[in-house]
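To close the section, here is one more complete example, presented without commentary so you can practise reading it yourself. The ligand is pyridoxal-5'-phosphate.
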Amino acid sequence: MKYKVPFVNYGLQYKTIKKEIDEALESTLSRGDLINRKDVEDFERNLSFFTGAKYAVALNSGTDALFFALKALGVKEGDEVITVSHTFVASISSIVWTGAKPVLVDVKEDFLMDEEKAERAITKKTKAIMPVYINGRMCDMDKIMKIAKKHNLFVIEDSAQALGASFKGKNAGAIGSAGSFSFYPAKILGCFGDGGALTTNSKKIADYAMLMRDHGQKTKTKIIFYGLNSRLDNIQAAALNVKIKLLRDWIKRRREIASFYHKELSGLKGIILPPAPDKGEFYDVFQNYVLKAEKRNKLFQFLKERGVETLIKDPVPTHFHKNLELSHFKLPYTELLAKKVISLPLYPELTENQIRHIVKTVKQFYND
Ligand SMILES: *Cc1c(COP(=O)(O)O)cnc(C)c1O
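Output:
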């Protein structure tokens, strides 16, 4: 079906920056610099500058960034790591693959980890907390860092959805022991396939990730340990170097659209809006614009019939998938959210007409 407003529009974004992208790719391709070369190094510098983290290590995915961060900190079998179920499953799988046990806690009304519940979940085995900045909003990192300090725990920021976000002026990915970013196409900074990065202020963690991504090879004559292949392709890095220059403007546009949604949809009976963009403590980047909606499935259908493609992310809570062996967790708010959430399209290339059409249609649904 052809939507008047598709949920994502990768092709359109490419068309708006075609010249710069084509030039960058052509340059990389004709130099033949394909693996771990200048484009990747440039991108790491750019990302480190953008986030304020001392080191950025480009990887093939955000998942590996989380996994490598945990491994670098020595998280292993017998340990526990606290995170949430209201996230993409990758947060949890990265813990499982270290051998440690994921301990899931509920989220609050802003979709983010409940700090008090996280503190109550700490046991003698807990090694780390992994806050997830879902939808582009950071957790209250003063609270989380305080808990971590008190209990001597590492903090790994799953900032896959929050590049450019900050809390009290501190940037996502530069606060805990390490942060992770994803450049999956739908993310705020997306490449033309898969990509990710680990950020950290620790040289030890950065060095570990550099070795892990390239089979533990330090030099041609020195292999330090068994690693994996988790490199970011140079052509992806070249595209990301073009796009990261535009990211501030893209984020501004995302926030403008979120403000418009907020202004237009506030007070509408039947939906609860996400926190509005403001200039206070939270600088949100609106990776997603998620409503909590009454008659959610009907709204989805109504919008679809009127040409608006929306997304119901995780109608089944992650801990409900039987084979993941997480069903012993009881997370009432997370379970409620699975029945209520629906994401409206939000990306910088949306036109005024499209945005107005979305708002008009949502209003129509609840006012009739
Ligand atoms: C996208 C995402 C990841 C994983 O990133 P990949 O690059 O797809 O591996 C992890 N956590 C969250 C919250 C994400 O949104």
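Once you have examined the tokens, check your reading against these statements. Residues 215 and 227 are 4 Å apart (CA to CA). The mean pLDDT is 97.
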